[in-house]
Amino acid sequence: MDHVLVCATSLVSCQKAFEGPFLNSLSSIRQGGLKMYIIEDKGGAIALMLASLFFLGTWPAVLTLLERRGRLPQHTYLDYSITNLLAAVLIALTFGQLGDSKPNMPNFFTQLSQDNWPSVLFAMAGGVVLSIGNLSTQYAWAYVGLSVTEVISSSMVVVIGTTLNYFLDNRINRAEILFPGVACFLVAVILGSAVHASNAADNEEKLNGSTNIYKLGENGSVEPNKVKEKDAPKDLENGDSATKYVARAEAGTAEYLIELEERRSIKVFGSSTFIGLGIVFFSGVCFSLFSPAFNLATNDQWHTLKQGVPHLVVYTAFFYFSISCFVIGIGLNILFLYRPMAGVPKSSFKAYLNDWEGRQWALLAGFLCGFGNGFQFMGGQAAGYAAADAVQALPLVSTFWGILLFGEYRKSSRKTYILLGFMLFMFVVAVAVLMASSGHRSTK
């Protein structure tokens, strides 16, 4: 739990670091009345992107930590969905309601009654694909690891989504800078797959040389000779983890890998590598579509709105976007309680309500993701959604948490370390290049 407190501490530090440039860049100058808070300059947009980068890179680490401690992913995602929607509501009721409503930029409540359903449907479609992508990655983290999952899926967002956004944004971003950045992300995809393959080979070698205390059963199942705590609860209806162990092995060892497999809620030993990578690539396709859909919702490039109907402001679009995220997330995970995936134990709605172990961290993850997405969209509306996709360098943050919290790549081979270093280097280059391509969208 001490490691997780680092997340909360870093969150506060990040807030203070970005508070100044964020507030200074908001357009709150009185010109006949207080205007709605809209980012209008490049510096403010970049500050929002960096804040979003930290938030979006941190919430997956929180959910991964809960899964590794044995909390059912269905329970975690249900909690996460609640605060993810609450973040959008808070943004809409604060930033979206500041100042008087204007004809070309109505506030949140005014827009709710306008005939803007074509744009609303685009926003909700973006929420649907994002929710499905997030659900997929929750299982992919277990199969492939936090770092590689985020690398591949985020790079696919940039390669596919950024290209779409560039043309939807009427090329306000500098192509000669933007597309070399996209190429860097594409290289990172290839390196990410290589890192996973190399690390998987390292783990297999460790397991084959494990001690007699730990051994693998048929089909890769784990048969550890561990002493369980006498009072360890076993009833999921009481919301407690199934097993608690007295001893903890050193991170990076075969013993650690087997102990982790026993404790976690998603069992992955004996599964095909292609299953994990298949889930990752599916989630990457879903993530690639949510930002272009949101772009269409706020800018109406396809002219679906009736003449005279104002475009959705970013806060209203994000509200509808988050509603569809919430509905899909809640609906699918209630179904998964009774018909689980990936060998996860069955549960029930009663078990979910009684499961308070780790709930506070799942709720925190929802807030982090909600505000991270909101800041990304606010920055994208100002500087171009193609440039805002620089936040897809979130694997830099996720990899940091993966190494710090979970011991990923501990005691791996030199080859794995070299590939990991090149992968992270390409991300640093890519995020710098994409942010440098930022343009400016007029709000007049």
TrEMBL record:
The chain crosses the membrane at residues 43-65, 77-96, 116-133, 140-165, 177-197, 273-294, 314-338, 359-378, 384-405, 417-436. It holds the Pfam family Ureide_permease. It comes from the Eukaryota. One of its GO terms (molecular function) is uracil:monoatomic cation symporter activity. InterPro entries: UPS_plant (IPR030189), Ureide_permease (IPR009834). Residues 225-237 have a biased composition (Basic and acidic residues). It is a multi-pass membrane protein. Residues 218-238 are annotated as: Disordered. Keywords: ATP-binding, Membrane, Nucleotide-binding, Transmembrane, Transmembrane helix, Transport. It is found in: Membrane. One of its GO terms (cellular component) is membrane. The keyword ATP-binding applies. Belongs to the plant ureide permease (TC 2.A.7.19) family. This is Ureide permease 2-like. It comes from Oryza punctata (Red rice).
